[in-house]
Amino acid sequence: MAAPPEIASPVAAPDAVAAFTERLRAQALALGFSKVGIARAEPLEAEERRLQDWLARGYHGTMGWMARTAEKRARPAELLSGVKSVVAVALNYDTPPRHTDAPGVAKISRYAWGDDYHAVLTEKLAALLDWVRAERPEAHGYLAVDAQPALDKAWAVRAGLGWLGKHGNVITREFGSWVFLGELFLDIELEPETERVPDHCGVCTACLEACPTEAIVAPYVVDARRCISFATIESKSETPEMDTRGWVFGCDVCQDVCPWSRFRQPTAEPRFAPRAGMVAPTFEELAALTPEDFKRRFAGTPVLRAKHRGLKRNIAAAQGRVASGSAGPPGPDAAAQRPPHGSNAASKPSSEP
Ligand code: B12
Ligand code: SF4
Ligand code: SF4
User: Fold this and answer.
1) How many distinct helices (H) and strands (E) make up the chain?
2) Structurally, how many domains does the chain consist of?
3) What is the distance in A from the centroid of ligand 3 to the CA of 51?
4) Can you give the residue range of the structural domain that contains 150?
5) In 31-178, which residue ranges form alpha helices assigned H by DSSP?
6) 146 is a catalytic site residue
7) Does residue 71 belong to any structural domain of this protein?
8) Of 314, 323, 335, the residue nearest 233 (C-alpha)
9) Averaged pLDDT, groups of 10, the chain, 353 residues long
10) Which of 178, 179, 226, 337 is the most exposed place for a label (fewest CB within 10 A)?
11) pTM beyond 0.90, yes or no
12) Which atom of ligand 3 lies nearest, measured to the CA of 169?
């Protein structure tokens, strides 16, 4: 007897989904991503509630765009119609140089030492989408790297890349928190991770204790208004709002003290290599930059975001030249939220390998 004709099914067989997911993962790693994981594209309900709480407390400061896009951030279907899967990626950006506290030296956060990560991750994600579309021409995708209204950290956690550290950054076991995050949203079925990485912060509170401005108002919760990173990158204030303790762009203190930073590894991405004059510029040389010098020196790096005007303000803030009465806004309930840091609370993560 002749075999019955095969009926084409719009739903891929589970084995085919698993096999395609494996090939997609391999392709992401071949493109240079350090980690890749898959999450089901569900609404981020618990995360949306926490985001709304964070906004209600005013912790976003003047980042009005966070409030305006809050719902979209937690609802992937608003980014891509028919979305089914989220491919979350992490890219290690650590490099060997370390910051110095030497007098006269300004500190730029290490994430900004090389090429702007938005361009690097977007290029790799676009190449991944091209690969998907060559294999599955019916697929549509949406790329997100920081600037798009997506909760990058929540997707990384759901896709099993790492856990949300008490300092508010996602930590991986392999690279610490020195990873940039991004996502490729797809309207095709993929096999999601079945396991998340457990929280390995344990009883450690090193980041909360080390933050120079007490911006980590509770474990996992950062009040941006108190954060040096916000004050030096996002704030549009004309005048310095707080003493940023030597930092002229971003801040790495809470990550530097994290025990998981011991597992850092030099990045394989050559575009993240520190450019000349990034690791230990002097206040004197930065203050002498004209607007044209500024553009030339920082072209293609995240520092450009501060603009020449912002860098001037940040130099004053980093040297503690803050007008009296503008010592940074204490969150209204920041003191109440801040946990007591018991002197016997060991600064140790829960499961050191
Ligand atoms: C707004 C923003 C900021 C703000 C606010 C910081 C923050 N922690 O959210 C400011 C300007 C301060 C900032 C600073 C920095 N940022 Co930023 N930032 C963002 C942005 C655009 C949105 C983050 C966001 O949604 N925040 C809102 C809050 C509500 O979100 P959340 O922290 O995830 O909140 C969760 C917790 O509060 C949690 N929660 C609350 N209670 C509890 C209790 C428990 C038990 C648990 C488990 C969780 C929990 O639930 C909330 C919702 O999930 C993302 C990019 C993106 N599109 O996602 C980059 C991003 C988070 N930033 C990044 C980086 C690199 C930085 C800096 C390190 C830069 C620097 N060196 O200066 C600093 C780090 C400061 C810090 N300690 O967090 C990276 C982080 C990479 C990583 N490994 O996690 C991101 C992901 C950009 C990227 N695509 O790579 N940033
Ligand atoms: S980035 Fe700096 S100021 Fe912001 S929470 Fe971390 S240590 Fe505090
Ligand atoms: S391990 Fe310690 S320092 Fe690192 S994020 Fe967790 S609590 Fe902070």
Assistant:
1) 13, 10
2) 1
3) 21
4) 14-96+112-199
5) 45-56, 64-68, 70-74, 117-135, 152-158
6) yes
7) yes
8) 314
9) 46 87 98 98 98 98 98 98 98 98 97 98 98 98 98 98 98 98 98 96 98 98 98 96 97 98 97 98 98 98 97 98 64 38 33 35
10) 337
11) yes
12) 5
